[in-house]
Amino acid sequence: MADPAVAGGAGTPAGLDRDVALDETIALDRAANVFGALSLVVADQAADATAAAAGRSESAAAALSALLHFLDGPSVDRLRQVLGLTSSGTVRLLDRLAESGYVRRAPGADGRSTSVVLTESGTRAAARVSLARAAVLERSLAVLSEAERETFGFLAGKVLVGMMRGPGATPWICRLCDIGVCRGAEGGCPVGNAARERYSG
Which burial class, exposed, middle or buried, applies to 63 when counting CB atoms under 10 A from its CB (0-12, 13-18, 19+)? Predict the structure, then answer.
């Protein structure tokens, strides 16, 4: 068994390589480190839950959710932008969703493009995806009091706005969101609000 204090068999102490590497990285404080762990575990659990609900991949779950909540018969290219996939990857994904009976292709608005429409079965699958995501998120925040949850929501929105990229960036931050939740809440969507302020007019 190799000595864990030696890296790569080259005789260089692993600790030395680590110290040199750490000197070249951005110093993290505890809040950033804990946030990194939190974002990872929530993303992992939500991905597993939504993929299981869709009976397909995480990308399939995101596609179903987006088609249910805010995409109304989008073109294949529009769906590609939302999901952050390549054109060929989007076509393959749609083929798999069509095989499952979740979507159908229809003529696009200009007669040359193709739109994507949820079937009844796809609508039910998309609803399952939304419920699975909601269960993970509610369980994640169950340890917070009402006041703590309100504060967390404000701070999370602030961080989201700070993470925004320019127009055309993919994948979309809100691709799995239930858009109606933020629209119906005081303050609305923090990302949508910031985008309107930055890019309108």
Answer: buried
